[in-house]
Design a protein that fits this description.
Elements: H1 2-28, H2 33-52, H3 57-84, H4 89-97, H5 102-119, H6 121-127, H7 134-162, H8 183-191, H9 193-198, H10 210-222, H11 225-246
């Protein structure tokens, strides 16, 4: 019952936060704030779950620390983009599709509040874990360090590439982006195994695996990769199609080699210069 009450409190606070975010979006015509609030909301949910949890001190401390720092880093990174750039192309396309209808945007923001509560479930389960398994706490901490380092590096590499005007209209293939079209999403997905490891030993600890499972579904099929790649194809066209052919979608792997000359379009069929 204590866990359900904690999730109810998280949901109530998320609904209020997203309502205020919708008002900000309406004033500034920039729905990108929803990503900032989603990250900050989950970070806050981790801290709240740790504070209210009835588990052992070690998993509670780690949930609050890891979840809180993860949310703070991601929210800060996204806020810099929202504050310094025009509305993300994904949301511009959504705004055109909905003809700017604010009731639909309000519903969209409130859906994100529900998702904050849903993704807080692993935090609540891990923070209620009364059985300390030091080896699994170490695994979770190592997973968190790897995922945060990888996601931060991917963000820095992309920001550096985008800051050069000479790269405008082209696709970043530097660093981690050479091995995955979405290394930031890969490490975001990996991050959720942290709390599954912290939850080992809890009565329903297996349910914490819903974090990485649901996150994979969302990133791969719902709101992550499909929208991001559709926007990239609109803005970068053939350059991004070539990137798709050569580079793995999510899981890092060496890129494919360039097509053989015999597989390319015959010279006679090419458009003359």
């Amino acid at each position: 019952m204590r866990s359900l009450a904690t999730l109810g409190l998280i949901l109530g606070l998320a609904v209020l936060m997203m309502g205020l975010g919708w008002l900000w979006q309406r004033r500034h015509e920039n729905a990108g704030i929803v990503d900032v609030l989603w990250s900050a909301g989950l970070g806050g949910a981790a801290v709240l779950a740790a504070f209210l949890g009835q588990g052992a001190a070690a998993p509670r401390l780690l949930v609050g620390l890891c979840g809180g720092l993860w949310g703070l880093r991601l929210a800060r990174h996204l806020w810099k983009r929202v504050r310094g750039e025009s509305e993300d192309g994904r949301y511009r396309a959504l705004r055109r599709h909905w003809n700017g209808a604010q009731p639909r945007f309000f519903g969209f923001f409130q859906l994100q509040a529900l998702l904050v509560a849903a993704f807080a479930v692993p935090f609540v389960i891990a923070a209620g874990n009364a059985r300390v398994r030091p080896q699994w706490l170490a695994v979770g901490a190592a997973c968190w360090c790897l995922s945060i380092a990888g996601e931060s590096l991917a963000d820095v590499q992309l920001a550096r590439y985008r800051s050069d005007p000479a790269n405008r209209g082209s696709t970043c293939r530097a660093g981690l982006w050479r091995y995955s079209r979405h290394p930031n999403y890969f490490f975001e997905w990996l991050h959720w195994f942290t709390y599954a490891a912290f939850a080992v030993g809890a009565p329903i600890g297996w349910l914490a695996l819903a974090g990485p499972l649901v996150m994979y579904v969302f990133l791969r099929y719902v709101s992550g990769i499909p929208y991001t790649e559709a926007q990239a194809l609109r803005t970068r066209g053939d350059d991004y199609r070539d990137y798709q052919r050569r580079t793995p979608m999510l899981f890092p792997w060496p890129p494919r080699r360039a097509p053989l000359a015999s597989a390319r379009t015959p010279p006679a069929a090419q458009t003359p210069p």
